[in-house]
Amino acid sequence: MGVLRLTDGRTHHLVELPTLRRGLLRMCVHLSCPGLAIGAADLRTLLVGDVLFRAAETVGVQARHTVDLPDLPPEQAKALDRATAALGINPPADGMAAADVHVSATQRPDTEHGVWIEVGPVRDRLTAIPGLHDGAAADPLALRLALLSHPHHEPITLTSRTLADAERTLTLWRGRVADWARSPSRPVPDSIRCQARTAITDDLGTPGVLAVLRHVAAEPGVPDGAKFEVFAYLDRVLGLDLVRDVGRA
Questions:
Q1: HSE toward the beta carbon, residue 232, CA cutoff 13 A
Q2: 164-195 per-position pLDDT tens digit
Q3: Model's pTM, two decimal places?
Q4: Nearest CA among 126, 117, 131, 132 for reference residue 50
Q5: 12, 16, 183, 217 - which has most CB atoms within 10 Å?
Q6: CA distance 208 to 149
């Protein structure tokens, strides 16, 4: 069983998450929904919870999570369902006992039980948010990549250029992964696996995981078959559908 360490928003210290209780990590994601509407900050909060969910599973810990949110109007509830599906966010479980981890962007949870993961604010400069608003041109997973490119507790600004850059990166990586898939498989190099695992388990360092992918893609000494396995392995946490184009003409 692995160890996950995250900065507790109450103490600002790195702590080990309590995952030894029958190997189960219980999470609650708290959404504010200002004006009873879903925004980019809420999607970022959900995404941080989803990455933690995925990270827990990669280190052999079963994870369950619930979402705490106000009663939304029907159209906003449907928009939330569409957005979470488009962004590849795992659906929540039914109600459960007290959570081990709380994920929140606006305020610390009322309960003193569990670790609080603080999510940084989002400055939204977009006319439409992919996956949430009709008419958004970008791939919703470009929004996911853009949000994962920054530490989860730091502020981030979303612009149309941010999403365009992220979408170009996704297109490039998916094309390369499809090419590498034609080569004989090779194991993930131990040094690369160690770097990626350290980034994942220490404060959900998704920018570090993305840096590993960029290094591997540009490293001529790594066989193409190993590059494919690295991208497929790390996409279990990133959730960017990097193998989507494998086998396509």
A1: 18
A2: 999 999 999 999 999 999 999 999 999 999 99
A3: 0.93
A4: 117
A5: 217
A6: 9
